[in-house]
Predict the structure.
Amino acid sequence: MTICPYCPHHCDIAYGGTGICGMYTAVSDEITERFPDHWLMVTQVSVETIPFVHAFPQAKALQVSTIGCNLKCPGCVSEVLVRNPDDMGTGLRYQSAKEIIDEAEKNDCKGIVFCLNEPTVSLPSFLSVAKLAKEKGMFVGCSSNGYFSEHTLNLLIPVLDMINIGLKGKDEKYLRACGIIDDSVVIQNIKKLVQAGVHVETALMHAKGQENDLITQAKEVVSISEKIPIQIMRCMAFGDLGQEFEPSIPESELLCDKIREYASHVYLFNSPGTAYINTVCPDCGDVLSTREMYGPMGCRPVTFLDNRTCSCGYKVPLTGMASSSRYEEEGMDGGYRPTRALECIQGIVTCLGVDDPLCAPRLWKLYLSHGKISSIHERIQKIPLYYGLIREVAEIVDKKDSGEELLSVLEEMKNRVTDAVKGMPRPRVLYTMGYPIFSLNGGRFENQLVDVAGGEPVNRLIKRSGKPGVNLSHEEFLSLNPDWICISGLFSLPKEECIAYCKNHALLVPAVTENKVVELPPSWDFGSPRWILGLMLLAQSFHPKTCTWNMDDIADQFYQRFYHVSYRSVEPTRSFIKASAKISG
């Protein structure tokens, strides 16, 4: 038996065995990586996507990621990557440290960042890349849970410029569910990293009911250094979590206000349209830099304070030089967006009735090596292309008959909609995510659903684009003058709060004054074959006189047929793969 030195679990690993993370084994009394120099993803990314808000602003980096984690946190956005390394390992690709650095230099990347899963579980491979990066004058960063040993800390400090540490709160039950035995380890690691001159940012997951714990933890962070940015990640019902754990955007903003009583720089993520993602001067209150949501867990700069200094004299504590322009990732590349792309594929597989643990890594390796994630993104924006993706996946997993059955049902339901709305007047429809000022890109799948459902998607009038959309000005919103507002089923907002926001901000358009707002259920408009249910719901909302079907009955038939559960019994989840959450409040 050999003790693994990399994290506080210190697993006692037998020869040929594995520990908790499944990424190390014992050979000749030594702990070695099971998949050295093998990567799930190597792609260009902007640092704000990781996210970093106070380090190397707007810089382009090369993101590397593997699989696995030393924790098992409920609701993890990367759950699809961190479970079952035995199976997922077959989806990794070899790339030497030199080849990675060569790729970074070729693409004019300023640094290397490890993100998407926990770097501790692939530490030797990450260190090999990091050391070469430092030799080339690049910065090195990572996103981590911070639950690593002093041995790992001492290996990281010489090569690490910046780290984003995701804190788990103070609730003992939740910490145990994650696998954390002693959470003081993480705080001590933050202290030592700051003392060593490493730039540290922290991310606190805001689950409903955990507000007091998060305030306590934020105070711990501030006691180490007032310069540490505190990122509040609004909890979303990914993985096994039910929606009961999700706070609304206003609830998370209220938490930010409370933490700002103690901390200088607090940012809110996973909240499209919020102003709480901007940099605000803690002395005079001026807005110094503005940002938009940019994919799950990320942001992008819209306006940026070049000289770091407020008009009142306050200096924003930034690390590293700012780049003159921002990098825009393609499709679903970068940060945590690839998890959504991979879930889109797995969501199809679920409806095909496949129960093969090797299926997912085989598919992901194929798509990552041929056109990468961008090809998936392009093929889930149009219904005919989505049909083609279903056929392709069904053939790969040897479920062609099941694929044709699924396609037949989708097409039959779609035709029912087109027949019902034919010749009907087309209302102007604005598709939003989070707050109603966050407009989804006009070319996204949701707007095609609006089109097919007999609406006129006004999002297409906005020529800017983001991931997955952009903030609208007050004037832009009013000029769109929507008859209907649709709220995305991914980063949602309750209908009542949407209407209240519009009234409080003088966004009085027909959709608001006539109470014509529809809130889509999770995964009913993007990411899984359940979009067909969203299509029927939209059509019925816009044209109730001709679309007279019973949505509960239709949804139940679909869930019974493809998920083998009753729609009326599910705990809603934002997972594209699963129909129901396992963990509810």
